[in-house]
Backbone:
């Protein structure tokens, strides 16, 4: 269940970025008509933003002057680390109980009369599930870290003055006439 919430958060985040891309493109269109068109373009700006985000998450967003994205980066990484640490601690609890039970000593999952609340097979299954969840949390956190770097790089590219203003992204919600469900998507428009 928590992963469904997490994935829906990521989808909303990407849709929000696509909406902002439209605003950036309109600003670039205005900038080409004004005196900004004669400014020099820094080709290393995206590489710098990606490097800064790799060194310290959120620093690339600060370099791009998108300060509002920094709390989102830390919230995403913090959530991933929270689930990793929580699953690791629970795994340690169940491993300790399993080792105590194998040695014949009482563990925290024994009942009042010495009858176990959780069987030995249940302890083994719980350890397997918690290992899988811990590893999944680690991979998701690493993916979010990489996504932070990619987002800083792409945002620096979008901020370029030479970007084509004829390209736009918009999130879309449409009603499916066959089953009356809502279909989400992204509209990509290119004017030439």
Residues:
């Amino acid at each position: 269940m928590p992963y469904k919430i997490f994935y829906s958060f990521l989808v909303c985040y990407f849709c929000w970025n696509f909406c902002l891309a439209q605003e950036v493109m309109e600003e670039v269109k205005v900038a080409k008509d004004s005196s900004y068109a004669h400014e020099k373009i820094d080709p290393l700006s995206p590489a710098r933003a990606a490097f800064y985000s790799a060194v310290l998450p959120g620093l690339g967003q600060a370099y791009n002057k998108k300060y509002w994205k920094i709390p989102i980066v830390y919230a995403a990484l913090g959530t991933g680390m929270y689930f990793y640490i929580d699953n690791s601690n629970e795994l340690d609890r169940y491993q300790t109980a399993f080792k105590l039970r194998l040695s014949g000593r009482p563990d925290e999952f024994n009942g009042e009369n010495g009858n176990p609340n959780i069987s030995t097979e249940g302890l083994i299954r719980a350890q397997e599930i918690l290992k899988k969840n811990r590893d999944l949390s680690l991979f998701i956190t690493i993916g979010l870290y990489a996504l932070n770097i990619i987002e800083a790089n792409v945002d620096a590219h979008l901020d370029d003055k030479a970007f084509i203003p004829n390209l736009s992204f918009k999130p879309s919600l449409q009603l499916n006439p066959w089953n009356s469900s809502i279909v989400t998507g992204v509209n990509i428009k290119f004017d030439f």
